[in-house]
Amino acid sequence: MSVLTLTGQCPSRLLDYHVDQSLDFSQNITNLYLVGRGSLWVLTEQSPGRTQSRMWILKVLKVQKVQKVLKEKSCSVLCDRSGLAELPREFPCEASAINVDKNRLKFLSERAFGTLPSLRSLSLEHNNISFITPGAFKGLSNLVELKMAHNEYISYLHTRTFSGLKKLVRLDVSDCNLFNIPDRIFLEQPALRQMFCIENNFRRIPGAFRGMENLTHIYLERNRIEAVAYNSLLGLGGLRYLNLQENRINVIHDQAFQDLLRLENFYLNDNVLTDLPRSAFKGLSRIKMLNLGGNRLINVSRTWFSDLVELETLYLDRNQLLFIEEGTFENLTSLITLHLNSNNLTGLPFPVFQPIYFLARLFLFRNPWECDCSLQWLQDWMESYKLVRHIPCSSPSSVSGLDLSEVVFSKLNGSCLDPGELNLTTASSEVVSTTENRFNSLVSRLLQQELGEELGNGTESLPNGTLPEGGQLSSGVGGRGAGRSLVGFTVGGLLFAVIGRSHAHAGLYCT
């Protein structure tokens, strides 16, 4: 049996293919082309007993069967990690995908890829490209996806950079060094749907996006955007996903989002917002997820969310919230998950919360809660639904350190008494010792192994909004065994301390 060796445009890629003797030569080339999935150039046949191999240049060969089959079954050109300093002179015209990632390309000339009518995906990521000649992609009339991310020397795009790409749907220029995108650059891309501009140097939202009604996704996280002007997002009526997280946004103009009537996922987290316009999200009735975490908000206005009737997840964590206006959540009838953790909240009156009493997930940890009678409703809710845990009390001093679930609210003439108002010198059969409560609370927390409830809105490389729900923290090497030993030692010491103190303060009680 003969052995065919393929040497393509990527000289480091070789492939052996055994000829099926039952097929004619043209069919073997067809199979070879499809199996190789590469940029075929030289075909070498070496048969047993032959001292000299035969070679065919596929460029010269005209095999009708190959051409016919390749119209139905396309091939991919894989030249990634090949050390290329310049593009090959020619690519197979039947190629549907070309990958030239992680090479040393610096320059793209006009019509750099020739005419490739079958090409649908082109990836040029992780190169050293610094300049793209206007018209570099002409001849790629059916290109759908263009990936140019991680080319840190690209700081400028010409108005005609993407000329000829009339069917382009997805464009990725993330992690380049772009400061702006020319306003009229996408005039020839009416089909563009997804725009990835992550981690560049934009100080404002590029005006190039205005009026692109077919855009559905815009990714602008980790730039240097400082403001969202009233006209920054005009004409984006088809937008469903907008990510502005991890910028430097400190002001949002009134009606800045007025045209985003189909928006469903909106990330504004990890900016420096201290306030929002009263009607910031007016008309955005289709939003399902809104992330405002990691800002500097102090108060929440009841007008912000009044139109968000389909909102399911709301992040307000990691702000500086002191107060939430009554009626803030009144119209959020679809809300399932609410993140209020890591703020400065001391209270949460029932009238503020009443309309969303059916929440499935509520995160309240890391707030300086004042566990008075205004939170008794929350304690009852915790006991009834078992969906919220770990709400440590900061005040009054008589219950400081206890969890809200452990606080006992007494009644006088049918009215609730705040723990700080109790007569601490009066004991009864129903009175509970504060010292004993604190000891039991501390022991239970030391023995508790479940840490999952502390998952609020944490973000790693997927900041804030993209972290999957649920998760577990690792205790590290030897964590469990070491933890049990430490707990045993600590509990013993605490028991001795508490017993000793209980004799000295036997008359100190609170309920």
Automatic annotation (TrEMBL):
GO terms for cellular component: plasma membrane. The keyword Transcription regulation does not apply. Residues 457-476 are annotated as: Disordered. Residues 367-417 form the LRRCT domain. It comes from the Eukaryota. Transmembrane segments: none annotated. Coiled coil: none annotated. Keywords: Leucine-rich repeat, Repeat, Signal. The keyword Repeat applies. This is LRRCT domain-containing protein.
